[in-house]
């Protein structure tokens, strides 16, 4: 990426969110520990479950998505991120390949719902409809619905891997995540 | 046995037929049988009665114009015994009229002119007996000059002489690849003496192809003779015919032919009173297209799963049960007897510079005359389609012709003037294949065509190697999306990339050529793909 | 390829692999020479000690003067050969082949007992496959847990037939075979009986050890616990042939 913060004078803006994932990738992000402080000098997290902002800004340099596309809501968010982020990163196996959420793809959605909310429930079995997004028939990786620029596999990717990717981006280089992480890592 | 003895026999058989004043030939190949020729035959036999031996109704093989079947040919001595009278779309009810008509006053309403280009422009070598002799009759075959090639080879030629004639002829394999037959034979011949095998590949699995079936159903002895000559030339004593079980009639006729040839001493031990032994066994294929691939075919004969293996070693070096093996296509073998009989130079005088002889094509699709034709190599595609095939029906216009089946490609109108041979088709991005030709008119969607062939390859992939096994699945699903107007530019790019990978990395010919129908339709009809693409959403 | 311990009259040839001048015995395959000389070539169906299968196509290399690619595992070396093992084109093809494999069945590494010890997983990493561009096939296959010691998960099988070959060629039991066509091919035990009911299986576990993925594993292993040991194979294979 060509945004060198020192030359343009402002920090790289980063937005993150989780879709159908376990938030483990975000936890791994936090696992960068004291390196987060160094990072804070170089990047600005403008939107994320980790910060308070509730609006995705018009223009973001880097968008990071965790989790797969499993519901209407995931789909909308992914499209929004694609629209507003210059560079979009799939973080973690769920985002990269569907991972555990996609294991339901072998079954019919209705059967999955029945199993979760009726068969295994003893008290008032019912399928929730209010205030929850509609599930899609097939779970897809992010790049199954929008173009993605960089893939960081791992379940979750190690903090070192995330650090490596971000550092490379900050330095204006294109990281090669295969050097530091893999599916299932 | 010497050639003279055989000639004597042939003359004797012909004399037996001399009493017959009128010979009525009914096509008994699978296509005419399916349109009812068996009943026609019975009706004609009834109408003929015993005829005091002057009238004879016989079943023959394919006469070519399958779309007009059942076909019946009447040969009257008074008019010369060549079947100058051909009747089309015959029903059992027509039998009395046909039998009642006399030479010079044929049944006009049923007539199918034989001076039309469909017949006149053909040149028959492989099909020379087809539609004339009774495929179940050994005598008929010998009377027509059959086994003269074999007897000549055994009694007058050394194996090296035979190899020389076949090499001189310039014959190339008719199974698709066009490998020089003489070279293949010489390679097997050069392997140290010991157990060697000859295999006839009659697995013919391309959709729309029925050339080999027609040869087997119409003139089975010709194939046996070709195999025996090959065995003599390379030093083999055992042969197999691998024929698909979906060809029951061909199998039946082959079995009859094998039995009769053996009884006559033309197969088995001390063939034609020489020291040469050769026997042939039939093996049935269970209908997997990939079993037509030579290494898969041999695995199947050995009783293993029909899957290709890497080559080299080629069958010529290590084939059936590890022994040197010659494997050729039905039509290749069917050309051998005439080559030995008439000489390699004669054969080489027909055709083009690098593709000699004739080729049998199965014309199908949107064309007037569907059926089987045999033309010299180098005949223009346009002549085949517009003149021999009679052009496109229903006032539609020609769009493309598909050759080479699932391994081939489509040729658009602007290239129709090329002379058909192995090399010209290759430069157009398709191939000769086994000889299927499917004609498409303006209403055909080329994406559908590509999808159809890809589906074929996907379901026929043996599953051994990754690129073919899963690449065909992916390409098919991409084609399906595009055909349903759900594809994007990115899908098309991915499709093209998969084509490249599958072509370059697959283990056997099936995978290596599976992308061809896509690549060729993309080459000539890219706009049809692009019209169906969705615009990017954002 | 397994070969007799001592062979008379084998010549030595010289050849060039990626600009390295090397010599090799003429009965060696390209992949064997590469392994000896530490030239990495990705492979999946090839395994030292088993017969050549030539099916995964990951080992394809470029031969100078030849248009077609050549599988390194099933091609013998020859005098003067000039081989390129890692061109941009080959890298691209290999990545695509690996992606096709991942998309064919469900290889969900994070919940696999072989996670971290899987050849497919490490192949993907080494070849730079960090995502799969083709759609996933989404076909479900059964899991056979009927064997008292082992488990077969078809969803993780890459159809390399190592199990088939080791059981036939080394153990001599020939419990395994392949059935079906195309992507629906499956390895089967005893004419598609449950493995636990197999009368031919000796329970030796060789198939489990040679299986590159988590398709064949020991019962009772948990995520990441299934470590395989293929050490025995070339040794057994050579001893067999020496006899
Ligand atoms: C997938 C596949 C299917 C094939 N099917 C046939 C077939 O049905 N008949 C045939 O003669 N050759 C077929 N071939 C070609 C054979 O492998 C072989 O080249 C041929 O039989 C050699 O005979 P020829 O030299 O007389 O052409 C097929 C090849 C492939 C790759
Ligand atoms: S190319 Fe297809 S048919 Fe041929 S070996 Fe590979 S999977 Fe089987
Ligand atoms: S455990 Fe041994 S005998 Fe049983 S299937 Fe595996 S390799 Fe064959
Ligand atoms: S079970 Fe394992 S060893 Fe057997 S074919 Fe599948 S992946 Fe290969
Ligand atoms: S290792 Fe060569 S094809 Fe699999």
Automatic annotation (TrEMBL), chain A:
Cofactor: [3Fe-4S] cluster
Class of this enzyme: oxidoreductase
Keyword annotations: 3Fe-4S, Iron, Iron-sulfur, Metal-binding, Oxidoreductase
UniProt KW Oxidoreductase keyword: yes
Entry EC number(s): 1.12.1.2
Gene Ontology molecular function: 3 iron, 4 sulfur cluster binding; hydrogen dehydrogenase activity
Keyword Phosphoprotein applies: no
Protein name as annotated: Hydrogen dehydrogenase
Species the sequence originates in: Thiorhodococcus drewsii AZ1
UniProtKB/TrEMBL annotation, chain B:
InterPro entries: NADH-UbQ_OxRdtase_51kDa_CS, Nuo51_FMN-bd, Nuo51_FMN-bd_sf, Nuop51_4Fe4S-bd, Nuop51_4Fe4S-bd_sf, Soluble_ligand-bd, Thioredoxin-like_sf
Keywords, alphabetical: 4Fe-4S, Iron, Iron-sulfur, Metal-binding, Oxidoreductase
Cofactor(s) the record lists: FMN; [4Fe-4S] cluster
Domain NADH-ubiquinone oxidoreductase 51kDa subunit iron-sulphur binding span(s) in chain numbering: 447-492
One Pfam family recorded for the sequence: SLBB
Highest taxon of the lineage: Bacteria
Gene Ontology terms for molecular function: 4 iron, 4 sulfur cluster binding; FMN binding; metal ion binding; NADH dehydrogenase (ubiquinone) activity; oxidoreductase activity
Family statement: Belongs to the complex I 51 kDa subunit family.
Protein name per its UniProtKB record: NADH-quinone oxidoreductase subunit F
Native source organism of the sequence: Thiorhodococcus drewsii AZ1
TrEMBL record, chain C:
SMART domains: NADH-G_4Fe-4S_3
Location of the 4Fe-4S His(Cys)3-ligated-type domain: 89-128
Domain (4Fe-4S ferredoxin-type) ranges: 148-179, 192-221
InterPro entries the record matches: 2Fe-2S_ferredoxin-like_sf, 2Fe-2S_ferredoxin-type, 4Fe4S_Fe-S-bd, 4Fe4S_Fe_S_CS, NAD-red_Hydgase_HoxS_gsu, NADH_UbQ_OxRdtase_75kDa_su_CS, NADH_UbQ_OxRdtase_ferredoxin, NADH_UbQ_OxRdtase_Gsu_4Fe4S-bd
Location(s), subcellular: Membrane
Molecular functions (GO terms): 2 iron, 2 sulfur cluster binding; 4 iron, 4 sulfur cluster binding; metal ion binding; NADH dehydrogenase (ubiquinone) activity; oxidoreductase activity
Gene3D superfamilies found in the cross-reference section: 3.10.20.740, 3.30.70.20
Keywords annotated in UniProt: 2Fe-2S, 4Fe-4S, Iron, Iron-sulfur, Membrane, Metal-binding, NAD, Translocase, Ubiquinone
Cofactor: [4Fe-4S] cluster; [2Fe-2S] cluster
Domain (2Fe-2S ferredoxin-type): residue spans on this chain: 11-89
Coiled coil: none
Membrane-traversing stretches: none
Listed GO CC annotations: membrane
Pfam (any one): Fer2_4
A GO biological-process term: ATP synthesis coupled electron transport
Family assignment from sequence similarity: Belongs to the complex I 75 kDa subunit family.
Subunit structure: Composed of 13 different subunits. Subunits NuoCD, E, F, and G constitute the peripheral sector of the complex.
Name of the protein described by the UniProt record: NADH-quinone oxidoreductase subunit G
